[in-house]
Design goal:
Strand content: 5-15%
Number of strands: 17
CATH superfamily of the largest domain: Periplasmic binding protein-like II
Largest sheet: 4 strands, mixed
Helix content: 25-40%
CATH topology of the largest domain: D-Maltodextrin-Binding Protein, domain 2
CATH architecture of the largest domain: 3-Layer(aba) Sandwich
Structural class: alpha/beta
Distance between the termini: 27 Å
Radius of gyration: 22 Å
CATH class of the largest domain: Alpha Beta
């Protein structure tokens, strides 16, 4: 399995700033996507129902603990996070299992802001000898956080050669630092995709991008031609919307990462490479042909899935994390204010495909990501944190649970509220299109894609901001990437020099 590195904390910050909604009582509500491949960013979907986190009659799944048997004494694990893992579908099911007698654990949430504030709070707690026991991996952890001695090495607690970690071993090795491993991700996740509305494609008389993908004909050029045809049909039509941080997903289809930290510590700066230049100039051509979302558009400077959902007849492709987008866009249409207005058991018209293949390549390169937890330096309950990480890995590899999760997505059972304002009423649950669900899982499988993983966000905003700004300026502006990359190259090199 060939793996390169690409990580993004810019997306995390942007998503969290734009996604969190409040219920009628002003309390933030988080209803992220479930399953074995959710994004490392909180995949928040808005809702106006105040009892969204109320108790339901959902059943806790049985977990096979044969590969790692807990002793029932995991204890209290302090989790530092910008969301409550108990109310987030990336971890809610696992927490329920962890808090049974089998593990004897309890998750205690320590609230934090996201972005740089996340690590500032962690540093403060570590310095005060009041470290949390667990936190979600974020891009700034590597190499920045690890180099600052903010995390515990995990080699004595996990065996990288254990069959339980076999498919994740190449990823674990990517996070090696000075001969030690600090991060054992328990799942591969999607990062970006091209999201679209099937009804829009059908109405416009276009080929379904998924059909092109299956036929092996989903390339830069077929993508461009589809957008040209769509935009020619109406002056108000837009081919593609993406933020500056999402442009890298297109660049990575060339098989090239922008910044790469190898396991031996070698750092490669590829911003002036021929492949990166070719990709940025291709995007700039799309901009010159008015296929891209204009910065001054009345939809605003950031189009979230919730904004895009009702406008998806005008914006053909939304560059965004596919699981969150599929859920949030569907929820916007099917789960409006008030449980009594919910639309149940209906598959939406939303869909997604990977970013198109570089016509110069015979294989799909895709920027991807991982999800998992790290243990901060000075954690008091390392044993409990290790138990929880194992619990999550077992959840990913238990075939019975994998099968249940697919069924939960494509044929969800009816769940009702047992307490609160909507007691006895049906809780809204998305019904996934089976093809979309299977593609989502396929996009997390190294047998189908060569994953590109880039360290450009692991050095902080001082590196990532000028780099993403330059990509955006070259795509939407007049200056060439050759000029832009030449101007920022010395800045990047000066930052990287501190780590060499």
């Amino acid at each position: 399995m060939k793996i390169k590195r690409l990580l993004s904390c810019g997306l995390v910050t942007a998503m969290l700033l734009g996604m969190t909604a409040c219920d009628e009582g002003g309390t933030p509500v988080t209803t992220s996507g479930a399953g074995p491949g959710t994004s490392s960013a909180t995949t928040t979907a808005t809702t106006a129902d105040p009892d969204e986190l109320a108790a339901t009659d959902a059943v806790t799944k049985d977990l096979d603990t044969g590969s790692y048997t807990p002793d029932g004494n995991s204890g209290v694990v302090k989790f530092l996070g910008y969301y409550d893992i108990k109310g987030d579908q990336k971890g809610a099911e696992q927490v329920k299992v962890f808090e049974t007698e089998t593990y004897g654990g309890t998750i205690e949430w320590i609230s934090s802001q996201s972005g740089a504030a996340y690590y500032e709070k962690l540093a403060t707690l570590v310095a005060a000898d009041d470290s949390p026991d667990l936190l979600t991996y974020e891009p700034l952890a590597f190499p920045y956080g690890v180099s600052k001695n903010m995390f515990e090495a995990l080699d004595e607690h996990f065996n990288i050669d254990d069959p339980l970690w076999a498919d994740m071993k190449p990823m674990i090795e990517e996070y090696e630092y000075e001969g030690k491993h600090y991060y054992f991700p328990h799942r591969m996740v999607t990062k970006y995709a091209l999201n679209y509305n099937r009804k829009t494609v059908e109405t416009a008389g276009l080929d379904d991008p998924y059909d092109l993908y299956v036929a092996g004909n989903w390339t830069w050029d077929t993508w461009r031609e589809m957008m040209i045809e769509f935009c020619n049909q109406d002056d108000g039509n837009i081919g593609f919307y993406a933020t500056s941080t999402m442009l890298e997903a297109f660049v990575n289809t060339t098989g090239t990462s922008l910044i790469d930290v190898a396991p031996d510590g070698t750092i490669s700066n590829n911003v002036q490479s021929a492949a990166v230049t070719r990709a940025i100039e291709y995007l700039a051509e799309l901009g010159r042909n008015s296929l891209l979302y204009p910065a001054d558009h009345p939809y605003g400077d950031w189009v979230s899935p919730q904004v895009w959902a009702p406008a998806s007849d005008k914006i053909l492709f939304l560059g965004m994390e596919p699981e969150w987008t599929y859920i949030a866009a569907t929820e916007t249409i099917q789960n409006p204010t008030g449980v009594e207005n919910d639309i149940h058991d209906v598959v939406s018209d939303f869909a997604f495909v990977p970013f198109p293949r570089d016509p110069n390549s015979s294989e799909y390169y895709m920027c991807s990501n991982t999800f998992g937890y790290m243990i901060p330096k000075g954690a008091k309950n390392v044993k409990g944190a290790v138990d929880f990480i194992y619990c999550n890995r077992l959840f990913e590899t238990d075939q019975n649970i994998i099968d249940q999760l697919r069924n939960d997505h494509v044929a969800p059972a009816t769940i009702t509220y047992t307490t609160g304002k909507y007691e006895g009423m049906q809780k809204w649950r998305i019904t996934w299109d089976a093809t979309c669900y299977d593609l989502w899982r396929e996009m997390c499988d190294a047998d189908n894609f060569t994953f590109i993983m880039d360290d450009m966000y692991g050095f902080g905003d001082e590196l990532s901001t000028p780099l993403t700004d330059a990509m955006y300026a070259s795509t939407f502006g007049e200056e060439s990437w050759t000029q832009q990359s030449g101007e920022i190259a010395p800045v990047i090199e000066s930052i990287l020099a501190e780590y060499k």
